[in-house]
Amino acid sequence: MSSSKNEESEFEDLLAAYPAKAKKTKVDDEPSSYRTHFEDVTQETYSWGSIAEVYRTGENPQEQRRKEGRFGDVALVLRRIVPHHGDNRDSGVAKTTQLEIQSPTLRAAFAALAADYVNINLHQNPIIIPEPYTELHHCQNRIQALLELDSDIVDDRLRGELKLLQAFQTDYMMRTLQNLNDYEQNGLITFELLRFIFIPGSLVVLPHRRLSPVEVYWAAVVQSCQEVLDDNKEPCCEITVAYTGFDNSSFGTVFAKLTVNGFTEIKRITDLPVYPLLHHPEKNTLLPALRRRGVEYRRLCEDSSTNKAQGNHIVLGSHCHYDGPFWEVADEARGFPSPTDGSPQTFGTFRITPNSQCRGRIVVDPPGFIEENPAYRDHVRKDKSGPSAILRGSESLKIDTKESASSSASPSQTGPTDKTVTDLQLITMPPIIPGFSLSKRTWGFYLVDGISDIKWNPNAYAALQIDQKQKDSVRKLVGEHRDAGSAFDDFVAGKGRGLVFLLHGPPGSGKTMTAETVAESLKCPLYYTTGGELGLEIDKIERGLRLIFQRIQRWAAILLFDEADTFMARRSEDNLERNALVSILLRLLEYQSGILFLTTNRLADFDEAFYSRIHIRIEFKLAEADRRAIIWAGIAGQANHEITPDEFKALGTLPLDGRRIKNVLRVASLLTHSRGRTARMSLADVKDALQISAGDPNDGEVEALVDTFCS
Q1: Which uninterrupted H or E stretch holds 240?
Q2: Residue 397: its pLDDT value, please?
Q3: Which one Pfam family would you cite for this protein (predicted)?
Q4: How open is the CA angle 242-247-252, to the nearest 5 degrees?
Q5: Nearest to 318 by CA among 448, 457, 206, 509
Q6: Phi and psi at residue 445, in whole multiples of 5°?
Q7: Which residues fall within 8 angstroms of residue 440, CB to CB, at 6 or more apart?
Q8: Which of 381, 611, 615, 623 is least crowded, fewest Cβ atoms below 10 Å from its Cβ?
Q9: How many CB atoms lie within 10 A of CB 66?
Q10: Above pLDDT 70, what percent of the chain?
Q11: What share of the chain is helix, strand, coil (3-state, %, to 5)?
Q12: How far does CA 700 lie from the centroid of its chain?
């Protein structure tokens, strides 16, 4: 992208455009009517806007009293606009200085060379470059390249006019450019010189410095940089940048704005909220890293939006592991506000400190996120090459990669339509991507670099300690439904196609773990929810349930509806709200097509109508002593311990449920680590944990057995 060969090609394209541009330029006067000459003039202006007089700067206006026409035939004019000397100081005329390109040949040439600059109007006559003439400085290499072309492209008249531009820089900008060079060589900058370093077409990086342990960068391409006044009428720099976004079907260019507040001191360039990639101390290492991240971002976007066949089911989204900062977008009321500078939501989100940390499994699904949160849709402009970047030759930024500059995408019926993605597009792709946290049950943004493949536990289901016949039946039914579905359907299309399990029994008997290990063995997402999470308002509950069923169908997830009795309690004549809840869930269960595990400790309270919606009902009982010993050993095996099989057998005699066994071993592990990180858990640690861990205060018999065991 930025090798010298490509840079030369970019220059050649610009220079080749000059003759065509010159032919299209509307010329009011013949080029020969303009003198190859430069004038520095002062223009006095009345308060109502009319020109009072124009004269050479430094000469006596009383002696000249010349009008505008005197300087209308020169190729280049520096115009200093001031209030008419007869008006008072509050006349309303602002003092400004601007360089005006009047010659049609020079206007055509400069318009071709500065075609990617949007700060100035290249179509007006004359072309006006306001002080401090940053656009002229940014074009200096291109002007020199044009001067070096053969005379059949650049005639003597144009060559002379281009040299006027170079002479202007030498005579009027030398001190500014010398200061700029001195500061830049030492990695410093002042606010007055800020616009000179943000060159249209150059790469900049936006660092997020609050993400430990390392900074995270978002790369973008400068479109424009101009000095404006903020809401407090203080000067600031407004930088418009372009990056590569994804609109759920293809990649394209997204524009965003950044503001650098004014400052009076000398600053390090790398301390700015956004700065040129050229000034990054490890730019040649950072650039390929940005590209690699872009490759991963692209893969995640394409995987999540491409239909993946799984038996008779179509799966969207990518099930991944994540460890890192998390920008939570809980709902419209608590989500991030829209950026005040008009930037896209994703770009604005990255600039905010993340809400929390997240470690666990997520579903990366940009299309699903936009569907539920349409305010976050980026307005993507479709083009072939992504953000335009014409990098300065001095940058010499190279991408060290064995991959080709454009990589082919796998075509898909419903996936992204892009066939190729350029290096520049990859480099400017966002560092964050939207997804759904399965542990927090909410949408948010995740660092692309924090996403990894899931390390599945292949022995999870085998370690489940429930009746073997029940265990085999559950696994077969779920696997068959997920992989192949069923030809059987209701008389009404789309009705009764789901698979619903009801798991009932005392706490800690393995109901929740059954659903968890089934999902683990099938390598699919487990969506956990409880009745209490959905709120109390009927409308909100119904919307929440519909969203949940849509998500599990989209992601081919297994739904674990824990403590389902909240919604399934028997209807009565005096509780209309509960009756409405039951009716809603009955209707949704009938038309959903996923796999549901409903758990309850209070089967007797269920409304009878639910039994016709449930396909398999399994009763769970507390494990016997031998199974409890296996549970003790299985959970303890995750830690460094020295407990013997006989000691596990002894622990199995305690009538504790699986959940309490897990809690006790968690406390024992903490007690062990208090002795040192390399200490091994012993039976003594477990006994100490048993004595202080919380049990059921109403079950005196069990607590007495625990006390006896620990004494």
Answers
A1: strand 235-246
A2: 47
A3: DUF7025
A4: 35
A5: 448
A6: -110, 145
A7: 326, 328, 358
A8: 611
A9: 15
A10: 81
A11: 40, 25, 40
A12: 54
Per-residue pLDDT at 693 exceeds 60: yes
Q: Does 396 score more than 80 pLDDT? A: no
* Cα gap 658→638, rounded to integer Å: 15
The CA-atom distances, in angstroms, between 539 and each of 335, 500, 562, 588 are 21, 24, 21, 14
SS3 state of residue 643: coil
CB 123 within 8 A of CB 111: yes
Phi/psi for 276 (5° steps) reads -60, 140
Taking a C-beta distance cutoff of 8 angstroms, is the pair 247, 189 a contact?
no
DSSP letter string over 25-89? S--SS-GGGSEEEEEEEEEEE-TTS-EEEEEETTS-HHHH---GGGGTTEEEEEEEEEE-TTS-T
In the block, which residue shows the tokens 């004019």? 77
**512 membership: H or E segment, kind and range:** helix 511-522
The pLDDT of 237-266, averaged and rounded, is: 92
Pair 183, 189: CB distance under 8 Å: yes
Q: Which two tokens stand for residue 41?
A: 């003039």
d(CA 694, CA 704): 14
The 10s digit of each residue's pLDDT in 36-64 is: 999 999 998 888 888 888 899 988 766 65
Angle at 305 between CA 304 and CA 309, to 5 degrees: 85
CA distance 282 to 215: 12
Helices in 201-327 by DSSP H: which ranges?
Answer: 283-305
**Window from 404-418, 427-441, 535-549, 573-587 with minimum mean pLDDT:** 404-418
Task: With a cut of 80, say whether residue 111 has pLDDT above it.
Answer: yes
Give, for 324, the enclosing helix (H) or strand (E). Answer: strand 318-329
The mean pLDDT of 538-548, rounded to a whole number, is 86
Collect all residues with Cβ–Cβ distance below 8 Å to 425 and sequence separation of at least 6.
Answer: 244, 251, 294, 385, 386, 387
Do the Cβ atoms of 70 and 54 come closer than 8 Å? yes
Q: Are 202 and 221 in contact (CB under 8 A)?
A: yes
pLDDT greater than 80 at residue 170:
yes
Residue 193 identity (one-letter amino acid): L
N-term to C-term CA, the chain: 74
Amino acid identity of residue 707, one-letter, is D
Residue 554 has pLDDT above 70, yes or no: yes
Lookup result for tokens 């990639």: 277
102 in Cβ contact with 74 (< 8 Å): yes
Closest CA to 272 of 223, 347, 206: 206
Residue whose C-alpha is closest to residue 498's, from 592, 614, 611, 598: 592
Q: Which residues pair with 324 in a beta bridge?
A: 358
Give me the helices (H) in 445-491, please: 468-483
Task: Give the whole-angstrom CA distance, residue 647 versus residue 692.
Answer: 19
Residue 392 has pLDDT above 50, yes or no: no
Closest to 143 (Cα-Cα) out of 174, 110, 170, 119: 110
d(CA 441, CA 548): 10
Q: What is the reported pLDDT for 138?
A: 93
Mean pLDDT of 76-87: 87
Contact at 8 Å (CB) between 525 and 361? yes
Average pLDDT score over the chain? 82
Does residue 148 contact residue 15 with C-beta atoms inside 8 Å? no
Distance CA 571, CA 582 (A): 7
Residue 375: its pLDDT value, please?
A: 84
- Phi, psi values for residue 243, rounded to 5°: -140, 175
In the beta sheet, which residues pair with residue 130?
98
For 148-158, b where at least 16 C-beta lie within 10 A, e where not — what string? eeeeeebeebb
Whole-angstrom Cα distance, residue 638 to residue 460? 12
d(CA 214, CA 356): 17
pLDDT for 296 beyond 90: yes
Q: Where are the beta strands (DSSP E) in 351-464?
A: 356-364, 407-408, 420-421, 432-437, 442-447, 451-452
